[in-house]
Amino acid sequence: MGRWRLSRRKLLFLCVLCTSLLLFLHLPTSPHHFSLSPSSTLCLSRLHRISWTQSPSPAWSWAKSENCRFRRFSRKHASELLRGAWILAAGDSQARLVVLALLRLLLDPTEVSTVEPDLFRRHSDYHITLPDRGIRVDFIWAPYESNITWLLRDIRHTRHYPDLLILGSGLWHMLHITNPSLYGTALTEIKQEAVSLLEPSGSLHPHMFWLGLPKLVNSKLNTEEKKEKMTGNMLEAYNWEVKWRGMPKGSSGPFMLLDIGLLTRGCGPLCTLDGMHYDGAVYDAAVNIMLNSMLIESQ
Question: Where do the domains of the chain lie, and which CATH numbers do they carry?
Answer without folding.
Answer: 8-297 (3.40.50.1110)
